[in-house]
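[job 0412] stage=fold_complex status=start
inputs:
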Amino acid sequence: SQTIHQWPATLVQPVGSPLSLECTVEGTSNPNLYWYRQAAGRGLQLLFYSVGIGQISSEVPQNLSASRPQDRQFILSSKKLLLSDSGFYLCAWSVWRIREKLFFGSGTQLSVL
Amino acid sequence: QQQVKQSPQSLIVQKGGISIINCAYENTAFDYFPWYQQFPGKGPALLIAIRPDVSEKKEGRFTISFNKSAKQFSLHIMDSQPGDSATYFCAATVSGNTGKLIFGQGTTLQVKP
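[job 0412] stage=fold_complex status=done
writing structure:
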């Protein structure tokens, strides 16, 4: 069966510090991978998605970047965090060609202070 | 045109009652409408989904009602239980390898014992 791992679960970082969140998927090949952000009390905002190694699409201009160095690994990064980067970050995957069915990780609660 | 509008933002229901969450969309190309359930500190999980060729889909206590002409769909939770207390997101997309899920803003449901 397929599983998705996302870590860390919680993270407190000072403003201006770098960020690296990692997500890995097991049990499937060539998945579509996604990074979402959920601000407190708000909906899910798609940040990045990837349909293959090295292929990254950005949905909104921001202080973040994403990379996919391996087929089942997706990384969210920032060189310098802003206060507005605080939120709940979710990694998700879908089967190739079936983008509408997303499977989410357990999320990372990021607090930038 | 890409928005999905969800209401209410929050909902309190007594145990055994019916919880109703509504969503509306504009894009007539949408052909897949899922609902996701999210417990605090966890990622959302697919609950139930419908395609526009049917007007209703039922899975246990959860029912989606779909009104294609009005471009609206709703989630009904019958015999609501305290364990149903969670945030619910509706979403919509064009199915296949090009569509992206567009999420509503979410509804926080509290079922009182």
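[job 0412] summary: The domain at 3-112 of chain A is CATH 2.60.40.10 (Immunoglobulin-like).
[job 0412] exit 0
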